[in-house]
Amino acid sequence: MRILRLAGRRLAASIPTLALILIGVFLLLQFAPGDTVDAMMAQMGGGDAATAKQLREFYGLDLSIPAQLGNYLWRLIRLDLGFSSIYGKPVASVILERLPPTILLMTASLSFAFFFGIVFGVIAARGVNRWPDTLISILGLIFYATPSFWFGLMAIVVFSIYLQWLPAGGFENIGLVQSGIWRTLDIARHLVLPTLTLGLIFLAIYLRIMRASMLEVLNLDYVRTARAKGLDETRIVIRHVLRNALLPMVTLIGLQAGTMLGGSVVVESVFSLPGLGRLAYESVVQRDLNTLLGIVFVSALLVIIVNFAVDLVYARLDPRIAAEG
Amino acid sequence: MDFTRLAINRRTALMTSAAIAASVINPLRAFAQETPRKGGVFNVHYGAEQRQLNPSIQASTGVYIISGKIQENLVDLDADGKPVGVLAESWEASPDGKTVTFKLRKGVTWHDGKPFTSADVAFTAMNMWKKILNYGSTLQLFLTAVDTPDAHTAVFRYERPMPLNLLLRALPDLGYISARHVYESGEIRQNPANLAPVGTGPFKFVKYERGQYVMADRNPDYWRPNAPYLDRIVWRVITDRAAAAAQMEAGELHYSPFSGLTISDMARLSKDKRFVVSTKGNEGNARTNTLEFNFRRKELSDVRVRRAVAHAINVPFFIDNFLGDFAKLGTGPIPSTSTDFYPGANTPQYPYDKAKAAALLDEAGYKAGSGGTRFSLRLLPAPWGEDISLWSTFIQQSLSEVGITVEIVRNDGGGFLKQVYDEHAFDLATGWHQYRNDPAVSTTVWYRSGQPKGAPWTNQWGWQDPRVDQTIDDAATEVDPAKRKALYANFVKEVNTELPVWMPIEQIFVTVISAKARNHSNTPRWGSSSWHDLWLSA
User: Strands B41-46 and B286-293: what pairing?
Assistant: First the structure.
């Protein structure tokens, strides 16, 4: 019950933010020259003025900007995201189709980065300034400095072209109709390279944060007490240090869930995945306002949900936070 | 005139790599030895998804590459670039040019089993070509009715004479037929068949997963005997060009059409025996790079300044160093691939001559001020291809050498069209002019005055010349082919003299295709054609 109340309060607090974001994006896109009909003409390779006029009426672009914004917000209150001009169907269903690959990719790479970030961070902290630490830190720096599109392309060259182990792109094998576990395995195979590409940069950040946080906690008084009690080092790290060192990592996950949604435009393009990032890019280029605002709306919701979950995890890791909240 | 010979001559003369020349000839040789094999899945690179797939209401290669296999046109072009019947078997024009009669093919059925008749042709022409289809609405402006005396005869009636050779050269692109029974009720633009096309073609639409792929399977009831060979075609949506090249190499794609890869990847793959890289099969999709002048700028309204700008740019140097073998020096709005209308290079040309450029600018009264600068201009490049981006930087650097400072303003597609063709917020603009087999289809609109504001790729320069307007109008309704050709030669001479738009580079799209494909690139618009004879060797 307390959780529900907390959730309700959070949601209410984020509504003004959400409204501001949506109005901001709407106005920002008005500054971009051209509308969706211009973009469509560009795609068709030309057309006459009468056609353009018909199309503008068809898409409701003959109204004034405040009227368009008003219409949009009024529809949103009734939970109607509107009609997508590039897809010719309701925005909600367009987004729903694209959501699973994005969430799958995001969850997979976040988990990958989080898990290996912890492992490598702990190893580095325990061997601080010795060779494991140096090696891990250098690798981390390389991953962090590599642009993800380059990393993705190189992964394709190595694993798809030379070794031919993994598919070069796409979400699933379309030549075969598969179901059940085989389809799941096939999708997993297609997601290995994108997950690694997207996850490695975040891995670099996580392992550095984890290392720093471990080093800090290892020097605290209660760790010295634990050592004085005669506990062995592994037990100290797992029972006493890890839990406290995890707090900054959890904070970071909350922050990065949002970044991941945007950051996947590049990875989705390189691996031809039908995700939200590419949809957002396409709707900007095509000036499809409804779709773009719909994506902003859904992404904002996702970020709010993730941050709420993060707060709950906080309370579990550190009971003091829950007591104060 | 043979397009094949033209492409190969130029190629062998220029190519440093013998492998490419061999690969152009290779499929022909292979064809002579092998018997066609049935079966196989052909995977095609699909770079830019369109909003809909019906070629009767949208004329663009992004639609033809898919629906050209599913829906069919009245006529197409054969290997020599001559019109050949598809859904029409024969045609005839009345002497006054106001009536064109098409005899239609019998025994053709739509994919849903209903028969194809003249009613489909009449419906498509009056409701789609004349009202919705881009370029079609201009071409069919004077179409008053399509009579259907019987199920296999369609009589097109025009208010003004329609040159038969114009109609036949435009119809391969602007003559796709849609089924009346599918479209007759409801708003055409919102018909679900626009994303699930129903046609008479060799392949039947199966599925479209937005953002992923389109799939079509063999039509077992196709009217051509023993066709098609392929079991299935899959168009894969890949927006990243480098990723598409990687998928070609991984064997997941067979074909990347219309210069879909980067210039460097095309050059690299051309040295790989697994691929054929060539401009062959794209002669019907020629384009020229443009330099568009805004006459609202006082300096640019002086013809001496426009000529000086042209003289200041070393086009052959640019082509050799940046575009390589896939482009050549252009001579005006009608490219040399247009054998019926190309007037030759004997029209006013502007070879590189920096001293002459400077002299012309001095003469026009724009002497170099302090620091050598005469005046500055804003250049808007279109975002369609990397060649345009390179070309705009080259223009900037060339003009700075004669004292004209150029600021490059980059936009995306919608922004570019809005700023140039609607708001006229440019001094110089550069992009592509697409030539569609006859100058009246999409070329003369670049020069004819009176274009409505906001119509992309039309004369929005603030320039008007009554003589040019007259020539364009006369040629559009002239039914004698020889007189039409002469009128267009005259037109090129006039616009090359006045230079409201300069078109100094000619390009043909480049095809990258697996060496296993047979019977490919055998017509001038092969990428758009039906692929009924395409097959894959083992």
Answer: unpaired
Rounded CA separation B196/B216 (Å)? 10
CB-count burial class (<10 Å; 0-12, 13-18, 19+) for B365: exposed
Q: Across-strand partners of B327?
A: B507
Angle ∠(B443,B448,B454) on CA atoms, nearest 5: 85
Of B240, B416, B454, the CB nearest to A269: B240
Cβ B56 vs Cβ B253: under 8 Å: no
Strand ranges (E), B88-247 = 88-93, 99-104, 143-150, 153-158, 203-209, 213-218, 232-237
Integer-rounded Cα Rg, in Å, for chain A is 24
| Residue type present at position B420 | V
Contact assessment for residue B491 and residue B440, using Cβ atoms and an 8 Å cutoff: no
Strand partners, A190: none
Identify which of A34, A86, A169 has the shortest CB distance to residue B417.
A34
Single-letter residue type at B276: V
- The C-alpha R_g of chain B, in whole angstroms, comes to 24
β-pair partners for B218: B203
Distance (Å) of CA B527 to CA A84, A92, A202, B375: 29, 35, 42, 45
Please list every residue in chain A whose beta carbon sits closer than 8 Å to the beta carbon of residue B237. 272, 274
Q: What are phi and psi for residue B416, nearest 5 degrees?
A: -60, -50
Please give the sequence-ordered ranges of beta strands (E in DSSP) within B61-152, or none if there are none: 75-77, 83-85, 88-93, 99-104, 143-150
> Which of B316, B323, B321, B404 has the alpha carbon at shortest distance from B357?
B404
Q: Provide the whole-model pTM.
A: 0.86
β-pairing, B375-381 with B428-430?
parallel
Q: Do B417 and A161 touch (CB under 8 A)?
A: no
Strands (E), B418-477: 428-430, 432-434
> Do the Cβ atoms of A46 and B132 come within 8 Å?
no
Chain A residues whose CB is inside 8 A of the B416 CB are: 34, 42
Number of Cα atoms under 13 Å in the Cβ half of residue B511: 28
* pLDDT tens for the 325 residues of chain A, in order: 677 787 777 778 888 888 888 888 888 888 888 888 888 777 776 666 777 787 788 777 888 888 888 888 888 888 888 888 888 888 999 888 888 888 888 889 989 999 999 999 999 988 888 898 999 989 999 988 888 888 888 998 899 888 889 888 888 887 666 778 888 888 888 999 999 998 888 899 899 999 999 999 888 888 888 888 888 888 888 888 888 888 888 888 887 877 766 657 888 888 988 888 888 888 888 888 888 888 888 888 877 788 788 877 877 777 776 555 4
- Which of B56, B130, B210 is the best substitution to test chain A (most A C-beta atoms within 10 A)? B210
